[in-house]
Design a protein that fits this description.
The complex is a heterodimer of chains A (about 280) and B (about 130). Helices cover about 75% and strands about 5% of the residues of chain A. With about 280 residues, chain A is an all-alpha fold. In chain B, helix 1 packs across helix 2 and helix 1 runs antiparallel to helix 4. Chain B has five helices and no strands. Chain B has one domain. Classes of the chains: A mainly alpha (about 280), B mainly alpha (about 130). The interface between A and B is large, with 65 and 67 residues.
């Protein structure tokens, strides 16, 4: 009973911090399971991937309803992330653990960088030729009044390449790779930040779902771990989401970065020790 | 630039949230039921399994869907939990299927192809997992 309660508490904490930081529970639950519950990497990755599906499903319902999700961008890029995720999840059964730990450390550093350099909101009035052909542009509500602003999209191939990497990391490490996805859409394709975040949230569930299906079909999901983790992370994410409008996230940013860097150091150390 | 059509509006903003939420709640109920069952029926198994996982004991849990459903309906907590996890992974699958229907209705060939590719990718993941 204590083990189960401990796992639930760990997962709730990861989901809570994941929701407050905007990075999702996956980046916190995998190291939490490794460090505190002494669970092997492969088991932690399988459990985390399921929890990413659960939290993304809950969160993206609201975003889709609000109309911020750009469905065409999501579907065009999902071709890249699903390819990466299925490949990554397949490779996760083959790749040595120290490589996974090293990749995890690098992803933590990327998430830390993303957290400190929150991107400016650039809105392009026109799409480039390929994005125009794919009808990727859209409209968002203007900050004042009932008017809408049109936005354009550029550099789809560049965004797609980063999305393959995001999918690969998701499949290998059991994380949503949300920070990488938002960076690809915002930095490379110049989508408005809120559209990038909502579209990324929509995509995370599908990407993690692709990886989770490989893990489930292979029989590599330990239900005794994955079930409390999925339930706990979802509950923690819900609580974090409720609290989010009432806290000053800017002031917590240094703490999130410190946690991410500490996790990166720990994972990097594990990788080098296991090499 | 493309505006949101009435069909897109109805499918995205009305039906998708309702169905996704129903599947999500269903999965959570199944998972909770499975977890409570295992703690009620066989708490020793849970502890033993947890410690064997910590000791890197191979944990593959590979049953076909018919066998899994059959044991779940007989009340086996592990099968119930696996079934709950499978229902959970249906959420993204259903979401993509909705988009596929949406683009078919809009006769948008490129996006029908994109969503079909994603759906095939998800199914390919299952096949790859079974053979891998």
């Amino acid at each position: 009973m204590f083990i189960l309660l401990g796992l639930l508490a760990l997962a709730m904490g990861a989901g809570f911090i994941g929701a407050l930081s905007g990075l999702g529970g996956g980046v916190f639950i995998v190291p939490a399971l490794l460090i505190f519950a002494h669970i092997p990497m492969g088991v932690a990755v399988g459990a985390s991937m399921i929890s990413v599906v659960a939290t993304s499903a809950g969160a993206s319902v609201a975003f889709v309803r609000d109309g911020w999700t750009n469905l065409r961008v999501a579907m065009a890029l999902e071709c890249a992330t699903v390819t990466g995720a299925v490949t990554g999840a397949y490779l996760a059964g083959i790749v040595p653990t120290w490589v996974l730990e090293l990749l995890f450390a690098l992803m933590m550093l990327q998430s830390a960088y993303f957290t400190v350099t929150k991107i400016g909101d650039s809105i392009l009035p026109h799409s480039d030729a390929l994005a125009e052909r794919l009808k990727l542009g859209g409209r968002i509500p203007a900050e004042s009044g009932n008017q809408e602003i049109e936005y354009g999209v550029v550099n789809v191939p560049g965004g797609a390449i980063l999305m393959v990497v995001a999918g690969l990391m998701s499949g290998l490490l059991g994380i949503g790779s949300g920070a990488l996805k938002v960076m690809a859409m915002d930095y490379v394709m110049h989508l408005p930040l809120k559209v990038s975040s909502a579209t990324s949230n929509f995509m995370i569930g599908v990407t993690a779902g692709a990886g989770a299906l490989v893990f489930l079909a292979r029989g590599d999901v330990a239900t005794v771990i994955a079930t409390p983790v999925a339930l706990g992370v979802t509950a923690g994410a819900l609580a974090g989401g409720r609290l989010l409008p009432h806290v000053n996230v800017q002031s917590l940013r240094i703490m999130f970065v410190a946690i991410l860097v500490l996790i990166a150091v720990e994972m990097g150390w594990r990788a080098l020790s296991g090499f | 630039m493309d505006t949101v059509t009435t069909d897109e509006e109805r499918i995205l903003r009305v039906w998708t949230p309702i169905i996704l939420r129903t599947i999500l709640v269903g999965a959570v109920v199944i998972l909770l039921f499975g977890l409570l069952s295992i703690m009620w029926q066989d708490p020793g198994y849970y502890v033993m399994r947890f410690h064997s996982l910590q000791s890197h004991v191979r944990y593959q849990n590979r049953k076909n869907l018919a066998a899994l459903a059959s044991t779940a309906f007989k009340g086996d907590p592990r099968s119930i939990m696996t079934l709950g996890l499978m229902v959970l992974t249906l959420v993204p699958l259903v979401r993509v299927a909705f988009c596929f229907v949406l683009f078919v209705k809009e006769r948008d060939g490129i996006y029908v192809a994109f969503t079909a590719y994603v759906l095939i990718g998800l199914v390919a993941g299952v096949i790859l997992g079974r053979v891998g």
